[in-house]
């Protein structure tokens, strides 16, 4: 079993940057593909990025491609989301998720564990 805890959210002006972190418990962290999702008020949970178990393959939503970078450190049991050139439409609660698989997925239902989320607010 894996427990996930996000941190690093906050309030930032448009054009700014934030780095989200997700710390995981458990000795089998490297067995999981990881993903970041977000959910804005009144909207469904939306895929942001995912990363393969080994970290050598990443996939991004078109809306964040070129601005966000997902990475992981298996030695530290952590996954990160570097967010640059933030826009007001990036405002949401951001969640990390773990999937017992080599590759991640764009679909929330394919993930086994979720964190509690961290709020990101981008002001215009």
Description:
The protein has strands spanning 4-7, 10-13, 18-24, 33-39, 46-51, 58-60, 68-73, 78-83, 92-99, 113-114, 118-123. Strands 2, 4, 5, 6, 9, 10 and 11 form a seven-stranded mixed sheet that branches. A four-stranded antiparallel sheet has the order 1-3-8-7, with no helix packed on it. The chain is globular, with a radius of gyration of 13 Å. The protein starts with a strand and ends with a strand. The protein is an all-beta fold and 124 residues long. A hairpin with a 6-residue loop joins strand 5 (46-51) and strand 6. It has no helices and eleven strands. The mean pLDDT is 96.
Key structural traits:
124 residues; mainly beta; 7-stranded mixed beta sheet; 4-stranded antiparallel beta sheet; globular
Number of helices: 0
Radius of gyration: 13 Å
Amount of helix:
under 10%
Distance between the termini: 40 Å
**What is the percentage of strand-forming residues?**
over 45%
Order of helices and strands: EEEEEEEEEEE
Structural class by helix and strand composition: mainly beta
Unreliable spans: none
Q: What is the count of β-strands?
A: 11
The coarse overall form would be globular
The overall pLDDT average reads 96
The description of the largest β-sheet is: 7 strands, mixed
Give the helix/strand layout.
Layout lengths: L3 E4 L2 E4 L4 E7 L8 E7 L6 E6 L6 E3 L7 E6 L4 E6 L8 E8 L13 E2 L3 E6 L1
Parallel strand pairs: 2-11
Antiparallel strand pairs: 1-3, 3-8, 4-5, 4-9, 5-6, 7-8, 9-10, 9-11
